[in-house]
């Protein structure tokens, strides 16, 4: 019997930077394993990824991306752009042909604010906002309604929290107690937790 898992993660790009948000519940079938998992993983001081799917798979991919980013910096003397890292991750996922059971949002501000989503086969879509996980339909409805290109980073953060919160109310696999929020701007990366 297949065990069901789920989550909700969102990413928003605005002029000032990007916002990533995710619930902090890890579930397996009808069991909540923890209410305190981090689903947004920093890769560099300017790029992070979110995970929906297998935690072990995304942790391995995060370690690989972190190593590639260090190697790139050592070789070229400058940080890898978010767009380049997204393309690298797309290639890694495509080469595996579905081996990694993940949906990922990658967001960062190296040269410019960038958000992209990736499916398990490496399909890559750059956009202004996106969501992944079992709560996607609920989160996307909120993002569609509230997103504007001229949002401030604070308003984008509020919108991201609202989207994950809405998913938590309707999707049984999305946590409804706490939301992890990461903002990335020219000044760097900040993480906070919002209790609902």
Task: Explain what you see.
The protein is of the alpha+beta class and about 200 residues long. It is built from four helices and twelve strands; from the N terminus they run E-E-E-E-E-E-H-H-E-E-E-E-H-H-E-E. The chain has helices at about 55-75, 80-95, 135-145, 155-170; strands spanning about 10-15, 15-25, 25-30, 30-35, 40, 45-55, 100-110, 115-120, 125, 130, 180-185, 190-195. It has a five-stranded antiparallel β-sheet, covered by helices on one side. Helix 3 (about 135-145) packs antiparallel against helix 4. The model has no long low-confidence stretch (mean pLDDT about 95).
Mean pLDDT: 93
Quaternary state, please? single chain
In total, how many beta strands? 12
> Helicity range of the residues?
25-40%
Across the major sheet, the strand order is 10-1-2-11-12
> What's the total helix number?
4
- Structural class comes to alpha+beta
For the record, give the distance between the C-alpha atoms at the N and C termini, rounded to a whole number.
33 Å
- What kind of sheet is the major sheet? 5 strands, antiparallel
Runs in which pLDDT lies below 50 for 5 or more consecutive residues are: none
Task: Report the portion of residues in β strands.
Answer: 25-35%
Order of helices and strands, N to C?
EEEEEEHHEEEEHHEE
Radius of gyration: 16 Å
User: Quick one: overall form?
Assistant: globular
EC number: 3.4.25.1
Active site: 7 (nucleophile)
Keywords: Autocatalytic cleavage, Cytoplasm, Hydrolase, Protease, Proteasome, Threonine protease, Zymogen
Family: Belongs to the peptidase T1B family.
